[in-house]
Amino acid sequence: MDLSDIRTIRSVLTRHGFNISKSLGQNFLINPEICPRMAEECGAQKGVGVLEIGPGVGVLTAELARRANKVVSVELDKRLLPVLGETLSDFDNVKIVNEDILKTDLTELIETEFPGMEAAVCANLPYYITSPVIMRFLEERLPIRSVTVMVQKEAAERLCALPGTRSCGAVSAAVRYFAEPNILFEVSRDNFFPQPNVDSAVIHLRIRKEPPVKINREKDFFALVKAAFGQRRKTVLNSLAAGLSLDKGTVAAALKRADISANARAEQLSIEQLAALSNEIF
Fold it and tell me: Does residue 51 sit in helix, strand or coil?
């Protein structure tokens, strides 16, 4: 079954009385070259278990199953279960879990389903849950080695942005704290059915064993990062004073001790400078 062929997709969906849901971000890939490349890039191979989110009709799932020891796909829409039961019937190493990825106990799921294996995440993420899902993977320090996902191009640029660039924001700093991010390749909108209104990109996040900086209190560091980028047009001095309810003199003194200009803006600061500033304030 060619799951990247639009006629096949329509036939399968019609056979199961399935109507595509825009609210769940259901857009199915119809370029046969993309999913094999994603499966290779994520490191799916013998000895590896792969967690997938939103398998759709199973086109990426099948490519992962051909390479990895086991694939567990978390799918929210129960209407897709009989569809996947047909499209993935040739694979005995695939398990579909009908749950909400934002509510699932991911640590327990990974440890239960992938004993003795390295684990990786690979998915064509629905756009509306991109940031919450990726930050869950990172903040909960799941037992995974990497996250390889297709997301909206604009989100990819934001997630992987380097300090000092216009796209850099709070989420960019947070991602870089937990992982080494990289944009692998872009995917235009005409590779999907139905066609979305935006282009996509595949990113790879290699999970760090240790953060690249040492901070006193992680919770306070992320509060500082959020405040610093909260008012991008303002200097870090003004953003932190307002966002953290601190006296400007206190912030100015911390900036001086961290050797950061009082006129600097958040996107100009490296993660090392943000860490130094956090350690001076907290």
Answer: strand
